[in-house]
Design goal:
mainly beta, Immunoglobulin-like, 4-stranded antiparallel β-sheet, about 50% strand
């Protein structure tokens, strides 16, 4: 009997770990691999989404109490580069939830793409930071938050 109970416990534990959803896979790259001081380049973040999932854009103001959470990028300041403008959500769409009285922007085409322009000021730029996001499914409205860190290695030639 003891072995039977241990077996059931092992199977149920395996099922819990097997059900972790990861509907968004993040990749990032540079628009240019080699630049000179004074050049601008784009940091490109791609989100490959599972079918019928979407990620919230960066270009809407969230409510304070409830509702969708926009994707947020934070780059650590460093004297070797400067930001040019804001992070841009490419091809975001607007949607209104009449029940909640909210309007928000999202990206449902895979891959969803975000871009941030930076100006390189000197050799050996240190471009790193983190992002936070929320993905939701069209099937049952389930939402999953996520976050991660990034580091860009830029080759600067003089």
């Amino acid at each position: 009997m003891r072995y039977f109970i241990l077996g059931l416990l092992a199977i149920s534990t395996a099922n819990v770990f097997a059900q972790i959803l990861e509907p968004a896979q993040w990749n990032y790259r540079l628009s240019e691999q080699s630049v000179s001081p004074g050049d601008e380049l784009e940091l490109i973040f791609e989100v490959v989404l599972d079918d019928r999932w979407y990620v919230y854009a960066t270009d809407f103001v969230p409510t304070e109490k409830f509702g969708p959470v926009p994707t947020k990028f934070e780059l650590e300041p460093h004297p070797t580069y400067e930001l040019v403008g804001e992070v841009v959500s490419l091809q975001s769409k607007e949607k209104t939830n009449d029940l909640l009285g909210l309007t928000f922007r999202y990206m449902g085409e895979s891959p969803a793409i975000f871009k941030q322009k930076v100006k390189i000021l000197s050799k050996n730029p240190v471009i790193k930071g983190h992002y936070e996001y929320q993905v939701c499914t069209l099937v049952d409205g389930k939402c999953i938050p996520g976050d991660d860190e990034f580091v860009f290695n830029v080759e600067v030639v003089e």
